[in-house]
Predict the structure.
Amino acid sequence: MLTKKNLQVIHVAKSDSRLANNDLPLDIQRLRCRALYHALRFSPPIESLGKKLVDRLRMRSGKYIALHLRYEKDMLAFTGCTSGLTDAESEELRIMRENTKHWKVKDINSTEQRIGGFCPLTPKEVGIFLQAIGYPPSTLIYVASGEIYGGDARLSELMSFFPNLVFKEKLATKEELNAFAKHASQSAALDYIVSLESNVFVPSYSGNMARAVEGHRRFLGHRKTITPDRKGLVRLFDELESGQLRETSSFSDLVQQMHKNRQGAPRKRKGPSPGIKGKARFRTEESFYENPYPECICSSKAV
């Protein structure tokens, strides 16, 4: 008989590219999916409030987009992305990066990061992107995020395109959120649930949570997830800024064509990049948790 004394909890510190994605026995891969999508559950208080948030969104509009907006101070400092920021803001981020011991890379070229597609989209860029994809200004958008760097001033750049933005702080009462106030991971779990159940999921940056949500949505039937091509979009945004392009139907056509195959349709998981050897090759693979196909998703041919 199990007692409280012999029950144990294993705390896994990392769950990223350090774990194998491919070349494992099929039964092991399927076990990973059973554990992740069936056995593991959020605690009842998280599940309960998460469901309430989804229901309240459905009552407002029926359908909604979940936008995972990664534009927090620590994210920008870690990636070294300062496009559109003031000199004072850029310096503040540099100092934060310099003082964070476990961040190994200190000297980062922001321009190179952005051109390479390694920066999260800014709130303004997200607005331009969603408009070009074809969503009307009336679209209900749930914003899953921490504290946006620059506050309301920077968020207003997105609201000028889509004024119908909703945060969990607007959907839930203060009393409901009190239990999660000092627990960032539990608060993020609420965002996870709302993002999982959304009609469309859009991550502005491909972090661990975005990958996990996308993979879970694939497992549940390849629910629509639009993954921005940040590298391609930066080129178009710069052409807009310089006047080479205008926000017309031709611009929208370019954006839509660029993302024709980036909307969560079934596809096999990508292997390592060619020519990469050693441990580095594993970091170039698509995460198993981002795309558990084909091991955990049945394939069937039309008769």
